[in-house]
């Protein structure tokens, strides 16, 4: 078979049946290879960046993903998506179509180029982010196999630049041997040392996170938690890795912001066991743990730390399985935090963020897939109590706004039998909302909830003031926007709690894409979001964000109590009273 057909075939064998992308004159032969394979199909997105996001979402629920772009403009447009996949260990194969070898060797000046020609330039750019290769007639088979092995073993994205004529060149179709198993001797030692350390501990705790999903270890992790009986918590991206009703699940870790029982237990543990953890500022709610997780027990995808020593060539599922066979159940005293959002309000009143997420919490059902957008949506969604087997997805490290909408498209196509729920803020959604047309074109039917508070809420909190106009955004009637696209969609705009309840009920009987624009006050956001963002701002920026200035006078919005309870508070009212009255006394 030819090179393009070979890549498609190998990816199909890994479970990739949909290839996302954006057509251009340098990649048509690659797309034709997808269409030629009876088990794969081409999914045309509205731009290369969204194609990369969609492949990321596809890989999160299917295992692996792939997308195709063109030379120069397509490659660079998509590089942010690939960087996000790299940061969060998402195995995506990015295939870029390039001009033919004759053109690249002669350095002919053709479109999508700089005046100073260098056809290796963008490959070099990608090599700063992930594993990348420029395919030639001599290395095509070797490099494709090398990239596939890295993608499978490391759960990282990879990139291949393929000139048009190399894509058509015949190569060997010999099957790859992945040989992705642990070193037995090292595995046995790791299992024994972990078991011994757990046995000696008095107050162990398991901290779980999203790499458990990336390395396909969910079943082993659940058995490990059940067999040991050790209290389990999780960082944000690890939400709902095990049943929240499990006896030893003590609640999510939100540091100083929520669940003080969890924070105290984690800080006092004598044996932290981190499994698949990405230890970063937002993912751990801005908190710094009082210990180095790698100095204790830290189980990663292909290696494990015990007491600061790294053991390579041991796979996470096999480490957990080996420990399960040796470890005995621990009798540990601990308390459980209250789990979930318990805010109740009825009647024809405005929607608040706390009400909104409490109702979504009640709406979610088993086997749903949730995509929570970067920003305040993430902090609202992670507090929900979720049924068993709900797959919660968030980009808690890379945090690229706009990711969730096309990523949800990928998930819908990866698991068409599952209900996909997308929760996004209007600021992030505006960046990639054009992909709603692609949802409709391919007949997928997620439930989309756009939380509209008319500004970039996260950045407003970072920049201290609701009157800070730098974070204003273009106002869009999103419910009408959804109906602009050709396709079967039910869309509505709601402003009251009663209407939001009705809208959720309507989606239960609609066999079509359902789109709800839920409007809340501009100063409203989940309290956890406000607390975490303020904490991060003060730590990262050393409190150097300027205070908001109104009428040439300074006001520090941190001095104003935003939420004495779970209600909302309008900054505009305070600014008016302080600065727009004639009375000197009132101004003071």
Describe the fold and architecture.
The chain is α/β, with parallel strands linked by helices. The chain has 24 helices and 20 strands. Strands 2-1-3-4-6-5 form a 6-stranded parallel beta sheet, sandwiched between helices. Strands 8-7-9-10-11-12 form a 6-stranded mixed beta sheet, with helices on both faces. It has a 6-stranded parallel beta sheet with strand order 14-13-15-16-18-17, with helices on both faces. Helix 11 runs parallel beside helix 13 and helix 14 runs parallel beside helix 21. It is globular, with a radius of gyration of 25 Å. The termini are far apart. The C terminus is likely disordered.
Short description:
It contains 24 helices and 20 strands. Residues 548-588 have low confidence and may be disordered. Strands 2-1-3-4-6-5 form a 6-stranded parallel beta sheet, with helices on both faces. It has a 6-stranded mixed beta sheet with strand order 8-7-9-10-11-12, sandwiched between helices.
Question: Can you summarize the main beta sheet?
Answer: 6 strands, parallel
Helix fraction bin: 25-40%
Strand percentage lies at: 15-25%
Strand ordering within the main sheet: 2-1-3-4-6-5
Q: How does the helix and strand content classify structurally?
A: alpha/beta
Q: Calculate the mean pLDDT score and round it.
A: 88
Global morphology: globular
Poorly predicted sequence stretches spanning 5 or more consecutive residues: 548-588
Q: Whole-Å distance between the termini?
A: 79 Å
Count of helical segments?
Answer: 24
Return Rg in Å: 25 Å
What is the β-strand count? 20
């Amino acid at each position: 078979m030819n090179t393009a057909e070979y890549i498609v075939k190998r990816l199909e064998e890994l479970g990739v049946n949909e290839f996302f992308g954006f057509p251009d004159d340098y990649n048509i032969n690659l797309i034709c290879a997808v269409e030629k394979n009876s088990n794969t199909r081409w999914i045309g997105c509205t731009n290369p960046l969204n194609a990369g996001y969609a492949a990321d979402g596809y890989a999160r629920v299917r295992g692996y993903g792939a997308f195709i772009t063109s030379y120069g403009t397509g490659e660079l447009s998509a590089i942010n998506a690939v960087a996000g996949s790299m940061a969060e260990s998402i195995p995506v194969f990015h295939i870029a179509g390039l001009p033919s070898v004759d053109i690249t060797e002669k350095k002919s000046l053709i479109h999508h180029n700089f005046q100073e020609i260098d056809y290796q330039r963008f490959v070099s750019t990608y090599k700063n982010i992930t594993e990348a290769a420029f395919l030639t007639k001599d290395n095509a088979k070797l490099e494709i196999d090398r990239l596939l092995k890295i993608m499978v073993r490391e759960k990282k994205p990879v990139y291949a630049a393929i000139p048009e004529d190399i894509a058509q060149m015949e190569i060997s179709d010999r099957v790859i041997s992945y040989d992705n198993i642990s070193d037995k001797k090292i595995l046995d030692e790791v299992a024994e040392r972990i078991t011994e350390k757990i046995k000696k501990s008095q107050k162990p705790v398991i901290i779980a996170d999203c790499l458990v999903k990336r390395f396909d270890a969910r079943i082993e992790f659940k058995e490990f938690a059940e067999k040991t009986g050790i209290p389990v918590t999780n960082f944000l991206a690890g939400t709902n890795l095990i049943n929240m009703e499990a006896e030893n699940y003590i609640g999510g870790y939100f540091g100083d912001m929520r669940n003080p029982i969890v924070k105290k237990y984690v800080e006092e543990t004598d044996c932290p066991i981190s499994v698949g953890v990405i230890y970063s500022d937002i993912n751990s709610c801005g908190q710094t743990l009082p210990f180095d997780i790698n100095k204790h027990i830290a189980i990663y995808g292909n290696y494990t730390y015990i007491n600061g020593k790294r053991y390579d060539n041991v796979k996470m599922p096999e480490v957990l399985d080996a420990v399960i066979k040796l470890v005995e159940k621990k009798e540990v005293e601990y308390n459980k935090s209250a789990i979930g959002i318990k805010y109740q309000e009825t009647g024809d009143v405005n929607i608040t963020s706390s009400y909104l997420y409490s109702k979504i919490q009640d709406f979610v059902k088993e086997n749903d897939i949730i995509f929570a957008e970067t920003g305040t949506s993430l902090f609202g969604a992670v507090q929900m109590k979720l049924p068993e087997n709900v797959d919660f997805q968030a980009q808690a490290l890379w945090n690229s706004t706009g990711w969730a909408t096309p990523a949800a498209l990928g998930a819908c196509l990866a698991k068409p039998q599952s209900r996909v729920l997308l929760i996004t803020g209007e600021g992030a959604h505006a960046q990639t909302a054009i992909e709603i047309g692609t949802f409709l074109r391919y007949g997928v039917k997620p439930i989309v909830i756009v939380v509209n508070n008319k500004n970039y809420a996260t950045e407003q909190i970072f920049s201290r003031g609701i009157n800070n106009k730098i974070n204003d955004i273009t106002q869009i009637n999103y419910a009408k926007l959804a109906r602009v696209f050709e396709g079967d969609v039910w869309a509505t705009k709601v402003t009251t709690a009663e209407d939001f309840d009705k809208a959720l009920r309507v989606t239960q009987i609609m066999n079509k894409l359902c789109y709800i624009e839920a409007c809340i006050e501009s100063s409203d956001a989940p309290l956890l979001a406000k607390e975490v963002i303020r904490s991060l701002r003060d730590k990262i920026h050393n409190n150097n964000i300027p205070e908001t200035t109104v009428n040439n006078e300074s006001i520090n919005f941190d001095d104003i109590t935003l939420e004495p309870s779970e209600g909302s508070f309008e900054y505009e009212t305070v600014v008016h009273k302080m600065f727009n009255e004639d009375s000197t006394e009132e101004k003071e």
